[in-house]
Design brief:
The relative contact order is 0.11. The chain starts with 10 loop residues before the first helix and ends in a 21-residue tail after the last helix. The chain contains 10 helices and no strands. The protein is mainly alpha-helical. Keywords: Disulfide bond, Ion transport, Membrane, Transmembrane, Transmembrane helix, Transport.
Length: 288
């Protein structure tokens, strides 16, 4: 009973709120960035630009793993205790790295990188040769014209009409998206891919620590250096292939299916590769 105690720290609440704010700030970059590229880029160049956007997005986790590796080498109370008095090393199971330092560094860099967005123009002219189909910018212009038309009504009902128009447009758009078989299929396949990818990144460092006796710092460094760059390279090459062969929606779907099926076959090889389990008294072997 003397070893049991309740957790009194509420630090997890601050981490939860911080990650929530970070997600709110980062989320618009992908949908708005892709919409911008689709609106203002030539149709044959859009796949390469979008692939470049996703490739750069993959470099962030790679540097994050490296930063985590560096922080894990530092003791958790760095700056508050005399490091010479610490008798354990990062290889010790009792070692706790400076996990909080990465949040401060990443938060500062994110804040500084957001400053240039404040100096972007409110609207840009559409270049020649760009996609002249019904784009998001055109829809916004139509919506602005509709709102200007309705602002000539009485001031009391102006806000109600704008809210009603917004909700009506949102519901119509949502119904159109959810009734699109291609989008729903892509969404389901993306969920499956990210589920496997997240599980891979979550448990592979622990596997390397247990099977190869590596520290958490070195495991994170190796994962970031070997796993994420090939993914970014694959995304970029996919964009180049789509541009070269000028694939449409159907061609892109066939190409994605072929690559996913090939990746599935290669993943099956994991079942034939592995290491023997460590002998743990009471778990894999008897105490005798």
């Amino acid at each position: 009973a003397g070893c049991e105690k309740e957790t009194s720290s509420y630090m997890w609440v601050y981490i939860l709120l911080g990650n929530m704010l970070r997600g709110i700030g980062e989320t618009p970059i992908t949908p708005l960035g892709i919409s911008y590229l689709d609106d203002f880029a030539k149709e044959e160049n859009a796949p390469v630009y979008i692939a470049s956007l996703h490739t750069i997005a993959m470099l962030g986790p790679m540097f994050g793993f490296m930063l985590g590796s560096l922080c894990a080498r530092l003791y958790v109370d760095i700056g508050f205790v005399d490091l010479e008095s610490i008798t354990i090393t990062p290889q010790d199971s009792r070692w706790v790295g400076a996990w909080w330092l990465g949040f401060i560094i990443a938060g500062t860099v994110s804040l500084l990188s957001a400053i240039p967005f404040c100096f972007l123009p409110k609207s840009l002219e559409k270049p020649e040769g760009a996609n002249h189909d019904k784009t998001s910018s055109g829809l916004l212009e139509e919506r602005g014209a509709t709102e200007k038309t309705h602002t000539s009504t009485k001031s009391k009902s102006k806000k109600c009409q704008l809210i009603y128009l917004f909700l009506a447009d949102f519901c119509t758009s949502l119904k159109t998206v959810l009734s699109n078989p291609m989008y729903i299929t892509l969404l389901c396949s993306s969920l499956l891919q990210f589920n496997s990818f997240v599980g891979f990144l979550t448990y592979k460092p622990k596997y390397m620590e247990q099977q190869y006796g590596q520290s958490a710092s070195k495991s994170n460094f190796i994962i970031g250096l070997t796993s994420l760059p090939p993914v970014g390279l694959g995304i970029f090459l996919g964009g180049l292939i789509m541009k070269k062969y000028k694939m449409g929606i159907t061609g892109a779907a066939k190409f994605a299916f072929s690559m996913s099926f090939a990746a599935f076959l290669l993943t099956l090889l994991h079942f034939f590769v592995g290491c023997e389990n460590h002998m743990v008294a009471g778990l894999t072997v008897s105490y005798d």
